[in-house]
Amino acid sequence: MPSELRYFRIQDNLRCNTSAYSFTAIWNIKFASFQISSNLNIDGEKRMTIQGKKNSNPEEIYREVNISPISNRVLLNPNEIPKEWFNIVPYLPEKPFPALLANNKPASFEIMTQLFPTECVIQAGSQEEYIPIPTKIRELYALCNRPTPLQRAFQLEKAIGVDSDRVKIYFKCEFVSPTGSHKTNTAIAQSYYAKMEGTKGFATETGAGQWGSALSMANTMMGLNTKVFQVRASYNDKPGRRVMMQNFGAELYPSPSNITQTGQKFYSKNPDHPGSLGIAISEAVETAMTTPRYKYALGSVLDFVLLHQTVIGLEAKIQMSKVGETPTIIMGSIGGGSNFAGLSFPYIKDKLTGDNPNLEFIGVEPYACPSLSKGKYTWDYGDSAKMAPIVKMYSLGANFIPPTVHAGGLRYHGAAPLVSMLKNHKIIDSVMVHQIKTIEAGILMARTEGILPAVETNHVIAAVIDKAVEAQENGQKSTILFNFSGHGYFDTHAYESYHAGTLVDYEYPDVAIQQAMKDFPDIDESII
Which residues neighbour 304 within 8 Å (Cβ) at sequence distance 6 or greater? Predict the structure, then answer.
């Protein structure tokens, strides 16, 4: 291409005074004279053509996104949806451990594919850095509003009193999906692969309902059936999520239920048992194993789930580069770990390779269920009935029943094995926050940025505010990037409780945590 003829992409969604098209760029063009025109290229992408006489330094032409309070989002076109997922495994400090059976032997490929779609099991064992995303999945990602925006939280920065030239807060807007969270990224993938191998339907669990909603929608798109076991505390707390799942055709059961052998063990003793994700997982696994042509779908924890979520971080890296920024801290709420991993894994590569060794990663947990912060890094079952494979992770124990806090999606006794490994090697860190503080952070976010966050997302927002204020007080420069994993328009009961003055903090007693951690399986790693 001649140096006097350059092409630059223009997006439709920002304003420009000189054209019907929207400019997302600041231009520094050292030409003696030039002309600007707009046109469409062959794949439908609007471009601006600049023609002019080159000066002595034509390479000084550059482009950067103009981020400002009036133009605070960085948007990508649908054709910029990543074509591959990023696999962190080749960069890990040690080889991931296999999932084990109760006899301490690794779960075979045949056993794993009885539970999960075959392609997902293959992906979980892959050593390739990038895994291709099928065109059909990318099309459905686009239908679900990918790529999602990257937004600068100017108004939040102002409200907490930080200097916006020194302390900056960015967030990835995963709440724009039709079901309101990041969960569609893996729901679509799992549903697609299950359909390709002739599966009739999925059984799954859900806490707050974000995962159950996402899978129900994806299965409807693929023509699959859905059976959802929702943790009873969230089933009662979030009626809107129940309706959404039913609208997408799901069969919905409060867990523990009286329709599975696992559920009956808890239900018979207490029909109002609040449930846990561990119990709901057991019910879903039992249902998948006893229902012909059904598979089990999981919305977090597993390696292939975290892989599918890396579209978040891959997009974010492109968007941050367009504003000329490199984050110094990356943060996300952690229950199982999928939304945190989705944003952080593509950046963790930079830390592990030495390209950005000082980058910090912080997962945020509730005091009521602090698996990374207070759990033990050991082998444990992923479910309460001990039907699922055994994995090495930070865990509070499969028998741990968390209190009925409003953050239903964070009430899981363990953290993803890959996230746990990174914590064990001190590559990432974790912090805990109380329930009332998180709700107050969500209200502040709503009043400043105009978005009501999910209760789970409030945890990272509270911690982000703390880190931003800390940087301001210490006179440090800090660019914080966090994952805004879901909206809270189905979480109004939690906010209602706060305004009524009935919301309370709960920190799980250390004595009770130690008691729950007494029953880990005895695994000899030397023979694995």
Answer: 116, 120, 121, 123, 124, 186
Of 368, 385, 382, 406, nearest in space to 267 by CA: 385
**ω into residue 96 within 30 of 0, thus cis?**
no
Alpha carbon distances (Å) from 509 to 325, 370, 374, 425, 426: 41, 11, 11, 26, 25
Residue 444 to residue 486: CA distance in whole angstroms: 16
Where do the H-state alpha helices sit in 401-453?
417-424, 435-449
pLDDT tens for the 528 residues of the chain, in order? 333 322 223 233 333 333 222 323 332 322 233 333 333 332 343 333 333 333 333 333 334 677 888 889 999 999 999 999 999 999 999 999 999 988 889 999 999 999 999 999 999 999 999 999 999 999 999 999 999 999 999 999 999 999 888 999 999 999 999 999 999 999 999 999 999 999 999 999 998 899 999 999 999 999 999 999 999 988 988 888 999 999 999 999 999 999 999 999 999 999 999 998 889 989 999 999 999 999 999 999 999 999 999 999 999 999 999 999 999 999 999 999 999 999 999 999 999 999 999 999 999 999 988 999 999 999 999 887 788 889 999 999 988 776 665 555 676 889 999 999 999 999 999 999 999 999 999 999 999 999 999 999 999 999 999 999 999 999 999 999 999 999 999 878 889 999 999 988 877 778 877 887 888 988 988 887
| Helix, strand, coil tally for the chain in percent (to 5) | 40, 20, 40
Q: Is the peptide bond before 239 cis (omega within 30 degrees of 0)?
A: no
DSSP annotation of 405 reads -
**Strand intervals (E) in 166-288:** 167-173, 201-206, 225-231, 251-255
CA distances for 521 relative to 320, 402, 436, angstroms: 44, 20, 35
Q: Rounded to two decimals, what is the model's pTM? A: 0.85
Strand ranges, E, within 30-117: 31-40, 46-54, 63-65, 73-74, 84-86
- Distance from C-alpha of 228 to C-alpha of 235, rounded to nearest angstrom: 11
| Dihedral sign of CA atoms 108, 114, 115, 120 in order | positive
Helix 135-143 and helix 184-196, axial crossing angle in degrees, nearest 10: 140
Cα separation, 440 vs 393, in Å, equals 31
